[in-house]
Design brief:
The chain is of the alpha+beta class. It has 2 domains: 1-104, no CATH class; 155-399, Phytochelatin synthase, N-terminal domain (Cathepsin B, Chain A). A hairpin with a 5-residue loop joins strand 8 and strand 9 (265-266). Helix 2 (111-117) packs across helix 3 (129-136), helix 4 (193-202) crosses helix 5 and helix 4 (193-202) runs parallel beside helix 6. The protein is 21% helix and 14% strand.
C-alpha cells in the first residue's frame, strides 16, 4: 500500500561534471544551470523518510534549496534534476511540500548493508554503508520524472516507446553491417547484454544522452583491428559507448564489459552498478552512492525482489536491472543458447494482479537466438527462479 504523505528531504547529492570524455568528444552535453555567476552541471537525489511519496509537482525553489543546504552545512546550490529551469515543472518536487524539520534517524547498519556496500568493482568504489542501509529500507528515491504514487499501486509500467527499439548489434552474419555499410565479424558483440540493459535504464534519467548520442566509431579494446560505426538507429551508439568506451575514475581500461580472449567477455555486477551510477549521476564526483546498489541472489528473497522493483518503477520512475538465467525468459524460448550463460535485462513494469513483470530484451535473434527484441512479460516466480539459478555463479541478482 502506498499512500501520499509528507516526505523528508535529507540530502541533495549534487556534483559538477565536465564534458570531456576522451574517445567521444562532445558527448554528454549537459544541462547548464547558473547560480551566482558560476556555470555548473548538477544531478540530484532526494532521500525520503519512507517509501511512501508525497504529492510533489514542482522543482524546488532556489530559496528552499539554499535553506536546506544551509541546514546541512553545505554551500548554497541549485540542483537541476532533469535540466529544467527553476519554473514549476509537473512531476518535480515542490519545496513547499517537503518537511525539512523532520530527520531520518541513523539506524544501525546491518551486516547485509555492509556486505552490499563492500562489493567492489574495477572502479574500487565502496558505497556508504549508512546510505545503503537507507536504500535497502526503500528510503532512497530518484527525485524526478514521476508523479506521486497514491493509493494501492498493483500495476505500473514505464514508457516503453524508446526502450522497445533498442537492440545490440549482431556479432556476425548477413545482418552484421554497421551504419556505413561495412560488413564485420566481432564475437564480443554477443556479450553486450549488460550494456543493452544499461542503455534501457539510462533512458529514464536526464543526464545520459543515450537517445541522441550521435554517430561515432568504436573499437573493442581487445580487438583493435575491428572498428565499427554506429548512430542512434536502435540507439546502438550509446550502447557501444557503454560497452567499449565509458571510463570511470579508477578504471585502467575503458568499457563496462571486461574483455577476455575473443569472443569471451563479461560484465561483472559491481561494474554494472558503478557504470549505471556514473552515467545516471552525470559523471558526478560522488557517483558511488548515487542511486543504484547490487543485491546478489543469495541475499534476495522473492518479496524483496518485488519491493525493489516496485519502488524503482513507481516511486522513482527508473528501471532496475537483473542478472538472470536466460532459459527462464520468454524471449529466449527456442534459442539453442538458452541456459548456457547469464543474461541482463531491465525490468520496466509489474502487474501484481497477474503476477508478472515486464522486461526489455535487447539481444537479437542473430546474437542470441531470441524470438525478437522489445518488451516481454514473465511470471514473477519465473524471474526469481532465474535470478537464483544464473549459471554464472555469483552474478545472479539485481542492480536497483
Amino acid at each position: 500500500m502506498r499512500t501520499s504523505r509528507r516526505a523528508t528531504l535529507m540530502v541533495i547529492l549534487a556534483a559538477a561534471r565536465t564534458v570531456d570524455d576522451g574517445n567521444v568528444v562532445g558527448h554528454h552535453d549537459a544541462w547548464p544551470t547558473h547560480l551566482d555567476g558560476f556555470q555548473t552541471h548538477f544531478s540530484c537525489l532526494i532521500v525520503h523518510k519512507t517509501r511512501k511519496k508525497v504529492a510533489m509537482q514542482t522543482t524546488p525553489s532556489v530559496k528552499a534549496i539554499i535553506k536546506c543546504a544551509a541546514s546541512l552545512g553545505l554551500a548554497a546550490i541549485w540542483s537541476g534534476c532533469i535540466g529544467q529551469t527553476p519554473e514549476s515543472t509537473p512531476g518535480q518536487p515542490s519545496a513547499d511540500e517537503i518537511d525539512e524539520s523532520s530527520t531520518i534517524s541513523s539506524a544501525a547498519v546491518s551486516p547485509l548493508a555492509r556486505q552490499v556496500a563492500g562489493v567492489i568493482g574495477r572502479a574500487q568504489v565502496t558505497q556508504d554503508p549508512t546510505w545503503v542501509q537507507r536504500k535497502l529500507a526503500l528510503q532512497v528515491q530518484a527525485g524526478h520524472r514521476r508523479p506521486a504514487a497514491t493509493g494501492n499501486v498493483t500495476t505500473d509500467s514505464l514508457d516503453l516507446t524508446f526502450p522497445s527499439q533498442m537492440s545490440e548489434p549482431p556479432p556476425s552474419g548477413a545482418t552484421a553491417i554497421d551504419v556505413t555499410g561495412r560488413h564485420y565479424t566481432d564475437g564480443y558483440f554477443a556479450n553486450f547484454c549488460a550494456p543493452g540493459a544499461t542503455n534501457v535504464a539510462m533512458t529514464y534519467w536526464a543526464a545520459p544522452p543515450n537517445l541522441s548520442f550521435g554517430q561515432h566509431n568504436f573499437t573493442d579494446p581487445h580487438a583493435p583491428s575491428i572498428t565499427t560505426t554506429w548512430n542512434d538507429t536502435n540507439f546502438r551508439s550509446y550502447l557501444m559507448y557503454i560497452a567499449d568506451q565509458v571510463k570511470l575514475p579508477g578504471w585502467t581500461v575503458p568499457g563496462e564489459v571486461t574483455f577476455f580472449t575473443s569472443p569471451m567477455a563479461n560484465t561483472f555486477p559491481a561494474d554494472l552498478r558503478d557504470t549505471m551510477n556514473w552515467e545516471a549521476s552525470g559523471h558526478a564526483t560522488n557517483f558511488g552512492s548515487f542511486f543504484y546498489v547490487w543485491v546478489p541472489a543469495a541475499n534476495l528473497s522473492q518479496s524483496q525482489l518485488q519491493s525493489f522493483i516496485e519502488t524503482d518503477i513507481t516511486d522513482s520512475g527508473v528501471p532496475p536491472v537483473v542478472n538472470v538465467n536466460d532459459n527462464v525468459l520468454p524471449s529466449w524460448q527456442g534459442s539453442r543458447f538458452a541456459g548456457q550463460a547469464g543474461h541482463s535485462v531491465a525490468i520496466v513494469g509489474y502487474n501484481n494482479a497477474a503476477n508478472t513483470y515486464t522486461y526489455i530484451e535487447t539481444c537479437t535473434r542473430e546474437s542470441c537466438g531470441t524470438q525478437r527484441t522489445g518488451a516481454f512479460t514473465i511470471s514473477q516466480n519465473a524471474l526469481y527462479t532465474g535470478i537464483q539459478t544464473d549459471p554464472q555463479s555469483g552474478d545472479g541478482g539485481i542492480v536497483w
